[in-house]
């Protein structure tokens, strides 16, 4: 995670249920969300808390739309037209990617990024929307491990036909 998200925006671990819900909905890693987008998430959460209402994803996404998710880019959030709640936290975030920390779970706590079935609630690495490149494996000891999935190389049609012994032309 980029340190500015902790120092400037006030995001803390473990993520709140709402923050986990946003990550799960966007299917992106925490470090993939731009600091201004994190500020919108946290600002909305604080506003709802002040109003005495639970923050709901459906309400949040009526005010904000995500960009960059499908491409696997840095995800930004913009106000939906004519529904502006907040302005940008900072107009320019320069060099925010330069200072970051690696976060690990405490041994005595259940990882907040897993659901009750031991499956990832959101990816821990950058990935395109809807694609997961890791598997969660439970060992006999009950330890949950995240391991990158094997990348399968799909042979081209030309190569498959050659391996099958046909010319591919009929």
Automatic annotation (TrEMBL):
It holds the Pfam family Transposase_28. Residues 161-170 have a biased composition (Basic and acidic residues). This is Transposase (putative) gypsy type domain-containing protein. Residues 5-67 form the Transposase (putative) gypsy type domain. Residues 147-170 are annotated as: Disordered. It comes from the Eukaryota.
